């Protein structure tokens, strides 16, 4: 049970980088799979292997109505022959993400926000009679997910001075830091929380690390909070896509890449720096936000 990892590293050219002698690259984890995208496959890989080893054939997981993790789990379940249930926060809605979940055979259960807080309780209530049911936490967060994300580091074609990734739960960042430690690399990690008051992310990340690490959290790049946008962010995404041919979305990768560009504008990096940003996928989220864009005809 595996996906072949196709995640090439592409240069990101920009006049600001050229002017400062920066070499910036993007690792295309978004190309791993159209729906089991980027970090979501890395996070699920060992979780699914564990489920299979435990002879559980029914994946039960959690997310909001636009959750990339729900969609990735639905697609991975279909791909590898599991049944899947998604427990969705909030009243019943339909959107592109949930449509694709259902298309892959995922069964959806909508629960109110209060009940949603206690996920183990929901799992037990709904599936106490189902011996095949296997609990996967919201966002796929778990120590097995750390292991999966750490493997990204072994794929890197060179050593970078700086490595950037977007953070929701911090699992991906913690996994990459773990990988950098395992390979004794000097690369400095930059994690960009996409939610407001992202300082808490440091505890989340540190809780996963077996050895303390020195990394930077950029907590001012949330653009007002989770899934919030500004005209500047949307304009950046439009220009980025039109000038690179790479799709990004405003929830995760758009904010992280914008943060990187802004730091370069502030001359944060030394000339000659080699910088890598992880494209963690999630581009279906772009369609859910298409009405926010005002594009020229
Ligand atoms: C889920 C997701 C993230 C956040 O990953 P965490 O491990 O929760 O920090 C980042 N980028 C994209 C595109 C995602 O879908």
UniProtKB/TrEMBL annotation:
Report which superkingdom the organism of origin falls in: Bacteria
One GO MF term attached to the UniProt entry: D-cysteine desulfhydrase activity
Against SUPFAM superfamilies, the record matches this protein to: Tryptophan synthase beta subunit-like PLP-dependent enzymes (SSF53686)
Identify the Pfam families for this entry: PALP
Active site feature: 67 (nucleophile)
UniProt keywords (A-Z) are:
Pyridoxal phosphate
Q: Which family does it belong to?
A: Belongs to the ACC deaminase/D-cysteine desulfhydrase family.
Name used for this protein in its record: 1-aminocyclopropane-1-carboxylate deaminase/D-cysteine desulfhydrase
Q: Please report the organism this UniProt entry assigns to the protein.
A: Mucilaginibacter robiniae
């Amino acid at each position: 049970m595996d996906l072949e990892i196709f995640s090439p590293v592409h240069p990101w050219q920009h006049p600001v980088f050229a002017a400062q002698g920066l070499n910036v690259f993007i690792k295309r984890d978004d190309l791993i799979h159209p729906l089991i995208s980027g970090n979501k496959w890395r996070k699920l890989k060992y979780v699914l292997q564990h489920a299979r080893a435990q002879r559980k054939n029914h994946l039960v997981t959690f997310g909001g109505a636009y959750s990339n993790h729900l969609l990735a789990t639905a697609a991975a379940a279909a791909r590898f022959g599991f049944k899947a249930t998604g427990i969705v926060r909030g009243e019943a809605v339909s959107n592109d993400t949930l449509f694709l979940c259902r298309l892959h055979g995922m069964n959806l259960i909508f629960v109110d926000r209060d009940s949603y807080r206690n996920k183990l309780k929901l799992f037990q209530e709904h599936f106490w009679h189902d011996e095949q049911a296997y609990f996967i936490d919201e966002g796929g967060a778990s120590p097995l997910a750390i292991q999966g994300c750490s493997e990204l580091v072994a794929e890197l074609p060179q050593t970078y001075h700086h490595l950037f990734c977007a953070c929701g739960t911090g699992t991906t960042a913690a996994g990459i830091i773990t990988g950098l430690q395992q390979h004794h690399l000097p690369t400095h990690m930059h994690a960009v929380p996409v939610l407001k008051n992202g300082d808490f992310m440091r505890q989340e990340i540190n809780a996963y690390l077996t050895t303390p690490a020195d990394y930077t959290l950029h907590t001012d790049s949330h653009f007002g909070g989770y899934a919030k946008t500004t005209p500047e962010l949307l304009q950046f995404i439009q220009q980025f896509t039109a000038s690179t041919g790479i799709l990004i979305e405003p929830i995760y990768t758009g904010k992280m890449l914008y943060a990187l560009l802004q730091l370069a504008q502030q001359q944060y990096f030394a000339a000659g720096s080699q910088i890598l940003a992880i494209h963690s996928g999630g581009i279906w989220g772009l369609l859910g936000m298409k009405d926010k864009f005002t594009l020229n005809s």
